[in-house]
């Protein structure tokens, strides 16, 4: 019973994170297919990383470096597949966190450019 509950929680978390990453890929200009896989999301964010402005943020990391880190975590999650659901979920969350930080760096820069 406990294993079933943990499995269903991990599956739900996986689904939420994939949805968040699909939204992030769309925000970066990617054309996300319906029901994307982790590898497809990694490819979309990788394209975004190459086209992203290379500005350092508060953390000292550039937007490209953060997106590249998100891509690495997505590729790690894809390699794991369903073997280690908790570890896969951790990689997905790291990808979300890195993308979020990259996005936060671009928002103030875009506002500054508009104000000029």
Task: Explain what you see.
The protein is mostly helical and 116 residues long. 77% of the residues lie in helices and 0% in strands. It has four helices and no strands. It has helices spanning 2-27, 38-51, 63-80, 85-115. α1 (2-27) runs parallel beside α2, α1 (2-27) runs parallel beside α4 (85-115) and α3 packs antiparallel against α4 (85-115). The chain is elongated and about 55 Å long.
Helix coverage percent: over 70%
Distance between the termini: 60 Å
Order of helices and strands: HHHH
Coarse structural class: mainly alpha
**Average pLDDT, to the nearest integer?**
88
Basic shape: elongated
The main pleated sheet reads as: none
Low-confidence stretches: none
> What fraction strand?
under 5%
Question: What is the topology?
Answer:
Layout: H1 2-27, H2 38-51, H3 63-80, H4 85-115
Offer a quick outline of the entry.
This protein is mostly helical. The protein has helices at 2-27, 38-51, 63-80, 85-115.
